[in-house]
Please model this.
Amino acid sequence: MKTIDLRFTINGAKERVSIPPHRTLLELLRDDLQLIGTKEGCGHGECGACTVMLDGVTVNSCLVLAAEIDGRSVTTIEGLRSGDKLHPVQQAFIDESGYQCGFCTSGVILSTKALLDANPHPSDDEIRQALAGNFCRCTGYTKIFESVQAAAKGLEGDR
Amino acid sequence: MSAENRDVRGRNWSTLIGKRLPRVDGLEKVTGEAKYGADYNLPGQLWLKILRSPHPHARIRRIDTSRALALDGVRDIVTGKDFNGWRWGWMHQTRDETPLAVDKVRFYGEGVAAVAAVDEETAEEACGLIDVEYEVLPGVFSVDEAMREGAPLVHDDKPGNVSWEFHMNHGDVEAGFREADHIREDRFETGRVLTGFLEPPAAIAQWNSSGITVWACKQSPYFHYRHLAACFGLPLSKIRVIQTFVGGGFGGTKNDSVAGDLCAVLMSKRTGRPVKFVYTMEEVFTTCRRRHNFVIINKMGMKKDGTITAMQSKAIGEGGFCTAIGPLTLYLTGVMSTLPYRLPNFKHNAYRIFTNHPAGAAMRGHGSTHTRFAAEVQINMMAKDLGLDPLEVRLKNAVTAPHETINGILVKSAGIKEGLEVLKESAAWREKVERRHAGKDVVHGVGVSGASYSGGARQRGHQACSAMVRLCEDGTINYLTGATDCGQGSDTVLVQIIAEELGLGLDDVGIRRVDTAMTTVDPGSYGSRVTLFAGEAAQKAAREVRDQLAAVAARQWNVAAERIAFNSGNVFVIDDPDKSMPFRKLAQIACYAETGAVIMGRGYSEYSPEPYDFDNGYGDPGVNFSFTAQLTEVDVDLETGITRATDFLIAHDCGRPIHPVNVEAQVQGAAVQGLGQALYEEFRMENGRTLNPNFVDYRMPLATEGPAITVVDILTDDPDGIHGAKEASEGSIVSTPPSVVSAIHDATGVWFTSLPVTPEKIALALKARRDRGAE
Model:
């Protein structure tokens, strides 16, 4: 089978793979790199469970061809904590119980990180818009919004 | 822990119950460590794909698998006949479902054959190479069609396509209607709704000489465990279901087995290799369990002062191709209709009708959501007709504890009046007229509703939950439970209950999720039963450990064991502060005494109330009953019909919140799920096909649509609930749709009786009214 070679940065580390050209980024993450913290809900870019950051911008990894990440940088949920120390966004989701079943949580946390990286003091509406691509069936979103607000405060303390 | 106990045990007694503590599953979930169904793989595994029927109703003439078997990489193919006639169903007399279709298919997308191949692509390609010859049969796609004289039969032995019937008749409704000053009869419709978990069903199965092992995301893994034993004729000791993290449940599909589950096990047996499947979301939308859609004809009698004198309901539910848990659905459409208001006379006739659609089954707010919707909206209609305040009508009829309903439900705690008072005092209610036209192009409306839901649902058959609590020699705890946390937070509540008994912290208790070879049997997570039943089991098991440790401590200090207490990580003699040691030290003493000891506790729930009559809806359907009062505010654009729920105020009586954050979260989440039912969600069907099998065309609420939600806890300390607790979440999914619909009426003056109330329905109704006005 024909393969293509890719070089990219994943969670800060340099990586090289040789993969079939039709592989999606989601498949690359889960099947080749064993980064299973990224979840597949619908596989069609509708639910947001597979959200990761590509060069700092959120994408649905199920809609991105792996070939597109050549020379670029990907951040997944596994890349957020440093050692035992959680990223402030992760800590905020624990502190505010911004999750229930947890299946959407990786994607929600990455959407939150991307929002706060770009906009450290988002309004309620901006938070809602930033999360409009992430379905959550469990929480009704209230505790997610509270977690994002707490994360914004936590990051402020970090700066 | 009662206040008296706390006083007896001395100063600085701390309790975990009612504290806003972090959940115990946070770290795994925010780091991506938590492994769900699709995250497990085994060396040498095969991939399973299911060939599904392209017809909603057809006889299978012939299946030819030869071309598919010849494809490189295909290892096995099974069809319905390979299961040797095994069927399953909720009751002995309703076993009408087979793992794959046998002889005929009954809905579009029913499994016809399954392929196991070396990879997913090959399995999928092979499905396309299986030749199936069908004789297409006429189908029935609505209750009306299915009940018509001479309609095609979904099951040849079920005349009239009647799947199940349920009837209640308590008091004298005719006498009740004679007493009434005002009687209304209205028709209501509830929609067919997706449960909406984001994690599709997935499992990996391995059959070898030690039996069957499956890793599966099950909401009630012990259902699956029994199905596997029955289907494959193995003793339960050879069935090992290992629970993965579960990406949402909400009833139905994950409480059951799906075709993939059973085919994977069979093909692992036949190939000697592990077999894995992950359903696509399209398979979830088109083949999995969904909420029934119901037509409810509701008749209510009311006196001029708002007193409800009688209610009579006829409920017809669309069941789809098999019975599933339908008998319980019908029971629940009636049995809870006698709460939350006094209802002296009640008659109910319910029917479940087979159609050539996927099966209707349990979903959060099971059964009750349909009939409560009808009754709540109708109460508001009648209040309007009589010129009464809908909150005052509810307050007039609201039950107070103790109360026995006309169908023998004993209510020992009830906070519905207090909840309604919260709504009455709110600014949203007091200023509702002033706020109505505050917006420019939109009208603001306010609606109210009430609900009651049973916690600790009674099932037929085995219903005890169980627990094992093992003391580690360093004073930490291993807790084995058969209960499943599919996101609702029960792991945290159960750990809290154990830590409380032993005076430990949450971090001292390690919880192990279901592995049927290790954990003890538990019916499952449904009917708001985990906290009540698994909690009771956990508490008893923890107390056994505590009692064994207290005996050791008593010997150490030469005092009576009754004087030993556990709190804040310490063990001490009550009223003798000098006699105290860390829990860890006592654990070491106890475990290393003489030749060594092993300390463990076991417990199971023993709820055994008065007999109940399932056939007539008499007696308690659960341990205790939550009460919910809800106020909803909406903004309706009169031009486009677009409606946004802006605020929910939900006063919920869950008895006593053991974990208040979880209670809020459950109430909030269920309310937004109910909002989906009210405004957005419905499967659109045409000739048996689901036309909107994806999250774009089927509209679940988004983050931009979630209202601001205020949850107010009404504390009633139920005497039968552990730590006073009752259910949280099913109440608010029941109370949300009628309050939303009533708020839309407040804004528009139109009663919408068919869910969901889409912008199209609103715009058309308002246009029709304008047109009438112009005539």
Remarks:
- Chain B is about 30% helix and 25% strand.
- The first strand of chain B starts at residue 46 and ends at 52.
